[in-house]
Specification:
Elements: H1 2-21, H2 27-30, H3 33-46, H4 48-79, H5 82-97, H6 104-111, H7 115-139, H8 143-151, H9 156-174, H10 176-193, H11 199-208, H12 212-240
Length: 246
């Protein structure tokens, strides 16, 4: 299967190269795949790309971890407080429905062009993914399990520690891929809107000079980076979720 996937990738590049060389696709808009790969090699040789990748990685990890922390806390709190959940329900839904991209410029004004504004944007994206999963996990705890725990003398804090949070975390683990993807999207969009470094910044600089080859090179770097993040999450998920049916 891996061999077929690699073959498909080479076929896609070969098709791209042929369409450009035959002038079916204008090179000004679609770039030259050879020059795109050369641009990536130049970035790697000079080490420029690693500085930008490190910035994007830090922003992604911070947005991911902080978003999960707030999402778990908020989901458990409202899951155990039906009255508060009902009171805040319209506001949570309204904020969740708001396109977070429009908040990017506001965060840049508030927190500057550094990593803080990108992390905050990533947190707003990750938070709701985790929050709704945790909220649902807490609300769907088995009444039988709760009854048995209470019969054994478990108090509220023990129920929270041994029943509610484990149930919520199983839902968090099931959404790890989406959460890290949202953190990554938040980091890149934030860099694209305004930053001094990062892969989004690299692509924006290429666009400003109409360097389509560098734009596609940045997109390919982002794609590979996203695949590596997804693979890392898969490895972590396999270690955290044991006994899960295949």
């Amino acid at each position: 299967m891996v061999a077929l996937q690699i073959a498909l990738l080479f076929a896609a590049f070969a098709t791209w190269f042929a369409l450009v060389k035959l002038k079916i696709l204008p090179v000004f808009f679609f770039g030259d795949p050879v020059l795109v790969l050369q641009q990536i090699v130049d970035w790697v040789v000079t080490g420029e790309v690693f500085v930008h990748l490190a910035t994007t990685l830090i922003e992604t990890i911070l947005g991911f971890l902080i978003g999960i922390a707030f999402g778990v806390a908020g989901g458990v709190w409202l899951g155990l407080s039906p009255l508060t959940a009902a009171l805040l329900d319209p506001y949570i839904k309204a904020f969740n429905a708001m396109p977070r991209v429009v908040l990017g410029p506001i965060f840049i004004v508030w927190f500057g062009l550094g990593i803080t504004s990108k992390v905050v944007l990533g947190v707003t994206l990750v938070f709701f993914v985790v929050f709704f999963n945790v909220f649902q996990g807490v609300r769907e705890v088995s009444p039988v399990v709760l009854a048995n725990a209470r019969m054994l003398g478990a108090n509220r804090s023990q129920l929270l520690r041994t029943v509610y949070i484990p149930s919520a975390m199983s839902w968090v683990f099931s959404s790890l891929h989406m959460s890290v993807g949202m953190a990554f999207v938040g980091a890149v969009i934030g860099e694209y809107l305004g930053s001094s470094r990062g892969i989004g910044y690299l692509i924006l600089q290429a666009e400003s000079t109409f360097d389509v080859n560098a734009v596609f090179a940045g997109i390919l770097v982002l794609t590979v980076f996203a695949l590596l993040l997804d693979t890392s999450v898969t490895l972590v998920e396999r270690r955290l979720i044991v006994g899960r049916p295949t």
